[in-house]
């Protein structure tokens, strides 16, 4: 995990209405979203957002409709101006940028992949993929090879002379990803990028994104309302409700230690065996006896795979390895306990 903070957000507020600064004082005095709308006719979009996004990781921002997730991502490149707060990229507050610096941020440092593809219908696939370089002033001779390279990389070799209308939805979104990659920007913003796709195509696109990320190590900010997608993609997960961050942490820790009833409800129906990883429940070896173990598992194996390996025998335990080096031990009794959501375990305990 990288310790370098690429994007740092502090004290970020967004209030929509005729006098947002006046409304901000009501929020800081304790007014919530409903009260602000009913009594002051302003909409609270974001409230005191504080979060760091590490370089080379995928930060997923999720929440239900109206939670503020799309509003938040649009602050990163100042498509939306905040009411208060700071957004720092590589230590520089983008809210201090003049028009020229802001244009450079959008052209050089940040690319964006949209839910609705946003392809130009009168341009070929190659021309669409090369758009970001064309905007920078590069000639067609310079931009076309780069666009074709990334089209090939996302599986669209041979489609360069087609037009968007000739492609399926999944193929069009691959063009959108190729366009973002062609810019060679270190940060990718992806706003509900896969939500318009059919489930099977959506899964393919998630797999493609993870494959590319293993190779490129971009800083990706990904917006979704789908928890399964968030858990699959996220290195760091931020969950919003009514413009507030309810919890943000490594996804495994949110599953194991939800801090709010809202989060508990969110994660209650998740197949924990398929999502949780051995690293989240293992114990350090610390000189413990390891002669009675029944084999080795990788720290990134799912609990589901360990259950299959043990044939369900709760007496088994396994050495946990990373790069073939022992780093911990996991026993099946601990694993079984982790499969029960905390709130369900607490309810069961209260019965006895």
List keywords for this structure.
352 residues; alpha/beta; 6-stranded mixed sheet; 4-stranded antiparallel sheet; 16 helices; 13 strands; disordered C terminus
Describe this structure in words.
The chain has 16 helices and 13 strands. It has helices at about 20-30, 35-40, 70-75, 100-110, 125-130, 130-135, 140-155, 170-180, 200-215, 225-235, 250-255, 260-265, 270-275, 305-310, 330-340, 340-350; strands spanning about 5-15, 45-55, 60, 85-90, 90-95, 110-115, 185-190, 220-225, 235-240, 245-250, 295-300, 315-320, 325-330. The strands form 3 sheets. It has a 6-stranded mixed sheet, with helices on both faces. The protein has a 4-stranded antiparallel sheet with strand order 2-1-4-5, sandwiched between helices. It has a 3-stranded mixed sheet with strand order 11-12-13. Strand 12 and strand 13 form a beta hairpin. The longest helix has 18 residues, at about 200-215. The radius of gyration is 23 Å and the shape is globular. Residues about 350 have low confidence and may be disordered.
* Fraction of residues in H or I helices: 25-40%
- The assigned structural class equals alpha/beta
Radius of gyration: 23 Å
Main pleated sheet: 6 strands, mixed
Number of strands: 13
Percentage of residues in strands: 15-25%
Quickly count the helices. 16
Short description:
With 352 residues, this protein is α/β, with parallel strands linked by helices. It is built from 16 helices and 13 strands.
